[in-house]
Request: fold
Amino acid sequence: MANFGLSELRLVAPRDGWPKKGARSAASGAVAILDNATLYATARAAIADLHFVLATTARERGQMKRVFGPESALREIYARAAAGEAVGVLFGRERTGLENDEVALANAVITFPVNPTFSSLNLAQAVLLLAYEWFKAADGGLPFTGEARSPPATRDSILSFFDYLEAELEAVNFYPPDKKPVMARNMRDMLLRMEMSEQDVRTLRGAVRAIAEGRRLRRTE
Reply:
């Protein structure tokens, strides 16, 4: 829950009481969620103040309810929360899930696209999947990107590099007779598809220069 920005935990009649032994040490620092959790005797009491409730289930319950997948469910939940509604998701017991009467309390159900021959998820997995979809619905971005920090190369620096590269290639007779225009255009097209940054251009120019100068030094030895 803490990983994906959720903080309000409601527990219905915990089998072993609350706080459960070992829960805090297993929370990896997210103890505020445990400390602020509220306890209820029944699922009905736990959702009494909510306007819209979804229930998780791995199997069809024969109830006339809308069925959501995780992504569409959390988009719906997020939109309603943003509009001011109190919303929630019911999760079942680790071993048996929700009872039919508890599912009947919800507006709709959420189920997961899983291998039909092995559809059971444990409680932590189900919470993780839906919390992740919540964060996505809230436009939660990646904490960092792999984008280059160097600005995009200007057309002038790219064309200057092309001139330099083509001159060096011509100096070593790279182009067959009458093929330079076509080959040069193809190479320019290939390099332009890279959408090079200024650093890319400097690096490639330096590499070509090192090769060319190394070749000239070997000739003079």
In short: The beta strands are 10-12, 38-40, 52-56, 66-68, 87-90, 108-110.
